[in-house]
Amino acid sequence: MSLDAATVSWVAHLARLDLTEAELATMTRQLNAIVTYVDQLQELDTTGVEPMAHALDVHNVFRADEAGQSLPTDEALANAPERRKNSRGEQFYSVPAVLD
Amino acid sequence: MGLKATHEKLIERSAADLRQLLLEGAVSAEELASQFLHAIKEREPKVQAFLHVDETAVLSQARAIDEKRKRGEGVGLLAGLPVAVKDNMCSRGELTTCGSKILANFRPPYDAHVIQRLRQADGVLIGRTNMDEFAMGSSTENSAFKMTCNPWDPERIPGGSSGGSAAAVAACMSPLALGSDTGGSIRQPASFCNVVGLKPSYGRVSRFGLVAFGSTLDQIGPLAHDVPSAALLLQAVAGHDPRDSTSIDYPVPAYSDTVDQPLKPLTIGVAREYFGEGLDGEIETAVRSALKVYEGLGAKIRDVSLPHAKYGIAAYYLVATAEASSNLARYDGVHFGHRAEKHGNLIDMMKKSRSEGFGPEVKRRIMLGTYALSSGYKDAYYLKALQVRRLIKDDFDKAFTDCDVVIGPTSPTPPFKIGERSDDPLAMYLADIYTVSCNLAGLAGVSIPCGFMKAGLPIGLQIIGPPMEEAKLLRIARMHEKATDWHTKRAVV
C-alpha cells in the first residue's frame, strides 16, 4: 500500500501537524519505506487470532467513586501558556475561540 | 578511552558495595554525593549525559539523610545512594523536558510514583539525564538539546533512548540510574555502555508520572554496574500503585536477598531465529562464550524457536506509534508546554505549536501511528499488528515450557558512530530486533555485559524471562557475572 502526498497531508491534518513542502516530500518518502516494510505482516494468516491490546489480563480496575484531593487551581494552571481570570476571580486556561 | 579493572576510586564501585560503606558509616551520603558531583564536573564536558544537575539540592538531600542516620532514625533501602533519573519521569517543580523543546519549560505539579519511592528509600536524586525526544529513538541523537556520547568511544552513540542514564553510570557519574524501556530503551544502551539494564515485566513498576509513549509497552527500570545493584534499585521502586491501573497487585520479592543464589536446575533456551543474518560475528562469538559459561555452571542449553520473531519490528512500530499518536495528542499548546506565538484559529494554534515543538522523529512516529489508526487502514495495520503481537507472545509462552529463560544478543550490531544512521529511520528501527518482542509480550528482560569487540566496544547479553519472574532472572544474570569480570571494567573518560 503506498501513500501519496495528498494522503500524507490529510494525516498531518489529523495529527495537527504543519508540514512544509520539503517536509511533506521527505515524510512521504520515509513513510512509504516504513509502510512497505510493515506490510510484511500481511504474509501472516491471523484468522481467529484475538488481538492483544494489553500485556496483562487485568480488567475493570476501578476505585470507589469517592471524591479525593485535587490539585489546587494555581498549581494546575502553573504551566498554562495563557490564562485568564473572570470577574469572580476564577482562573481559566485561555485559548483562541473554539466556535466562530 | 579504555579498560580499567581495579576500583580504588569510590565512584567506580558498584552501588551494592557503596551501600555497605554507607550503612557501616565508612562514608557519609554527603561525601559520596560530593565525589559524584565532582565526577560530573570533570566528565560531563565530554560525556554530556545530564540535562540538569542542581548541586545545592543534591547536597541538601544527602545531608538530610546523614542527619537521619545520626538521629538513629534508620535509613531507607538506598541509604543515600545517588540515582540519576531519565528526564521523562515527573519530578515536582523540576524541569521535566523528555528531551523535547515542547516541554523545555515544563515543571510538573507532582512527583512520579518512582520518584516518591526513591525519596522514601533515601536515594539522592543526583540529576536528570538526556534522552531521545519522548523516548523515541535508539541512539539519544533525537534529543532536542544535546548529544550524549558513549563513554567507551566518544565518537559513538551510547544507545537510546535512555542513553544519558546508561552513559552516566558507565562514566561513573552516578552508581545508579533509572531509565524507561518501550522497545529496548534500557537494555540496548546498557549493552552499548557495558552496564546492567533491566526492563521489568509490564505492570511491575508503576507508570504514574512517567510521560507516556506507548502505554501498553512502557516500563521503568534500573541501570547499574552490576546485577545486585540493579536488584536493589528495582526493589526500591517496584510494586503496586493504585494510581496506575495497569500496575500489577503482586508482592515485590526481596530481590537483593536472593540475587546471589544460583539457579539449579537451569535450562536456557537459545532461539535459532536470533542467530541469523545481520548478527555481527564478534557479538555472536561473545554470546556463545556466555552460553558456555552457563554450561560450565551446570545449565542445560536447549534449542527453541520463536517463529514470529522477525515480525516483531513491524508489529512494534505499528502498535507503539499508534499509542504514541494518541499519547502525544495532549501536547497541543493549550494546558502546558510550548504554544506558538503567532497563530490563527484554535486548530492552527495547535498545528503551529506542535510543529514548532516536536522534532522530526517524533513527527514521523505520530504520522505513522495516526495513519495506522485512521479510517480504512486501522484493520490492515493496527489490528493486524495486535494479532501478530499475540502470536509473538504465544511463541514465548511455548518456549518457556521448555526453558527457564531465553538468552541471546541484546543488539545485532555494536554502537555505531554518531550521525551514521541519521538519514535512514528504517535502518535505525531494525536495530531493535532483539528487544521489541519483550515489550510486546510484556516479559522481563535484562542486558548484562558479556565482552568487548576488538575495537573496544561493549557487547551485551540479553536474558528474557516470563512475566513477574524478575527474582529468577536476576539470579540467572548474577551467575554469569560471578563467573566473569566484564562488569568490573570501567571506561576511562
**Biggest sheet of chain B: strands, sense, closure?**
11 strands, mixed
Strand count of chain A: 2
Approximate strand percentage of chain B: 5-15%
Query: How many angstroms does the end-to-end distance of chain B come to?
Result: 6 Å
Profile the largest sheet of chain A: 2 strands, antiparallel
Global mean pLDDT of chain B: 96
Secondary structure: number of strands of chain B: 11
What structural class do the secondary elements of chain B suggest? alpha/beta
> Which strand-content bin applies to the residues of chain A?
5-15%
Strand adjacency order, main sheet of chain B: 1-3-2-4-6-5-10-11-9-7-8
Biggest interface, which chains?
Answer: A-B, 50 and 73 residues
Distance between the termini of chain A: 38 Å
Low-pLDDT stretches of chain A = none
Could you list some keywords that capture this structure?
heterodimer, A: 100 residues, mainly alpha, two-stranded antiparallel sheet, 3 helices, 32% helix, flat, B: 493 residues, alpha/beta, eleven-stranded mixed sheet, 16 helices, globular, disordered N terminus
Secondary structure layout plus pairing:
The complex is a heterodimer of chains A (100) and B (493).
Chain A: H1 5-14, H2 21-38, H3 73-76, E1 83-85, E2 91-93
Antiparallel strand pairs in A: 1-2
Chain B: H1 15-24, H2 29-47, E1 50-52, H3 55-70, E2 82-86, H4 113-120, E3 124-129, H5 163-170, E4 176-181, H6 187-193, E5 196-199, E6 219-224, H7 227-237, H8 255-258, E7 267-271, H9 281-296, E8 300-304, H10 312-327, H11 346-357, H12 360-373, H13 379-399, E9 405-409, H14 425-430, H15 436-441, E10 444-452, E11 458-465, H16 470-483
Parallel strand pairs in B: 2-3, 2-4, 7-8, 7-9
Antiparallel strand pairs in B: 1-3, 4-6, 5-6, 5-10, 9-11, 10-11
Helix pairs in contact in B: 2-3, 5-6, 10-12, 10-13
